[in-house]
Design brief:
- With 249 residues, the chain is α/β, with parallel strands linked by helices.
- Helices cover 34% and strands 26% of the residues.
- The protein has 8 helices and 10 strands.
- The strands form 2 sheets. It has a 6-stranded mixed sheet, sandwiched between helices. It has a 4-stranded antiparallel sheet with strand order 2-1-4-5, with helices on one face.
- Helix 6 links the parallel strand 7 and strand 8.
- The relative contact order is 0.18.
Length: 249
């Protein structure tokens, strides 16, 4: 299955991407001819069983890993031909990341953690925009507090604001609610959904949780390194049913 949108409307495109680890009989084909376009201003969830290629998909799309073959484009920028130094600069300037581990530095305050990507890129930040982002994700904590003094949900909100503060072309999220209880996870997902709706922030999230996926505009299902199904925004029950019957689709 290929899901390629009009090139001009895509924030990220993968075209016939293969990723193989090892060689010979020991080779593992993590991705096997994946083609997809992620439309700008949309929230896409990626699901699949363990070993389906979800993490490899995200890593290739974000320029964290190189495909064995195929093409990956961020906007009109081809990633597969870039050097590691160029990819590092590109990720810093144009991509945001949110992971299951919050990856916050306790030696820095909340505000310092948030603006760190801008400082690394030697860019100034707009205090008014920072304040707006903090309000939009309902991060009701003093910005001079250390991350270790925050709850898990608050720390993940800090990570989301940090990912958004650079106004990136794309935000990639790898199991962002995996370490949170269900109530906190729903609050964090609501904040992500708000960022898409308010700022038109293109986001791609890998998750195993049908409830988390229900916040996305569409859910893409992987199996054996291939895209095997897509479901428009739906309920957790419908998403779970599709996951259960992937082999039939």
């Amino acid at each position: 299955m290929t899901l390629v949108a009009d090139a001009l409307s895509c924030a990220v495109r993968l075209e016939n991407v293969h990723r193989t680890y090892g060689s010979g009989e020991a080779a593992v084909h993590a991705l096997n001819g994946v083609s997809i376009g992620i439309r700008r201003g949309t929230f896409t969830a990626v699901m699949g069983p363990s070993g389906s290629g979800k993490s490899t998909f995200l890593h290739c799309a974000a320029g964290l890993d190189r495909p064995t073959s195929g093409s990956v484009l961020l906007g009109d920028t081809e990633l597969t031909t870039r050097s590691e130094a160029q990819l590092t600069e590109l990720r810093r300037e144009r991509v945001g990341f949110v992971f299951q581990a919050y990856n916050l530095l306790d030696s820095l305050t909340v505000e310092q953690n948030i603006v760190l990507p801008l400082r690394l890129a030697k860019r100034s930040f707009d205090p008014a925009y920072l304040a707006e982002l903090v309000r939009s994700v309902e991060l009701h904590v003093p910005l001079d507090r250390r991350p270790s003094k925050l709850s898990g949900g608050q720390q993940q909100r800090v990570a989301i604001v940090r990912a958004l503060v650079t106004r990136p072309d794309m935000v990639f999220l790898d199991e962002p609610t995996g370490a949170l209880d269900s109530r906190t996870a729903q609050q964090v997902l609501g904040a992500l959904r708000h960022a898409v709706d308010r700022y038109g922030q293109t986001s791609l999230m890998v998750t195993h949780d049908p409830m988390a996926a229900s916040y996305a505009d569409s859910v893409v299902f992987l199996a054996d390194g291939r895209i095997v199904a897509e479901l428009p925004r739906s309920t957790p029950d419908r998403i779970a049913e599709r996951m259960t019957h992937l082999g039939e689709w």
